[in-house]
Amino acid sequence: MVKKYFFVVLISFALLVSAVNISVAASNRGIVYTTRSVTQEVQFWEDVVAKNPTYKDGYTLLAELYREAGEPNRSQEVLKRYWEFSLLSSAPF
After folding, report:
1. I want to staple 66 with a disulfide (CB 3.0 to 4.6 A). Which of 21, 26, 50, 75 is the partner?
2. Smallest Cα–Cα separation from 65: which of 48, 82, 43, 86?
3. Is the pLDDT score of 24 beyond 60?
4. How crowded is residue 63: how many other Cβ atoms within 10 Å of its Cβ?
């Protein structure tokens, strides 16, 4: 009888430790993500697009960041560049 309860307690403890570990890992990822501001991310992706003008995903990410920063006009400008490049380019997505 004691063995039965021992295993139940052991499994419950293991599940609790796993849940706490997952929670800590998720919160750590959030902290790492929020260490860079939107402004820093915009600057990073502007540099990426300037150095690699054929990197189409860079345009979409930059447009999304401008939207998050509250700059919808700049976001639209970047998307226009993306579409112009996509129409002129034969490179696949």
Report:
1. 75
2. 43
3. no
4. 22
Cβ neighbours around 12 below 10 Å, total? 10
Residue 74 identity: R
Reduce the DSSP state of residue 70 to 3 states and report it. Answer: coil
Question: Mean pLDDT throughout 7-23?
Answer: 58
DSSP code, position 54: T
Q: How far is CA 17 from CA 9, 10, 13, 26, 85, in A?
A: 12, 11, 6, 14, 51
Q: How far apart are CA 85 and CA 77, in angstroms?
A: 12
The model's pTM: 0.55
Q: How far apart are CA 78 and CA 45, in angstroms?
A: 11
Query: Amino acid letter at 88?
Result: L
69 by DSSP, 3-state: which? Answer: coil
Tokens of residue 29, six digits: 């990822």
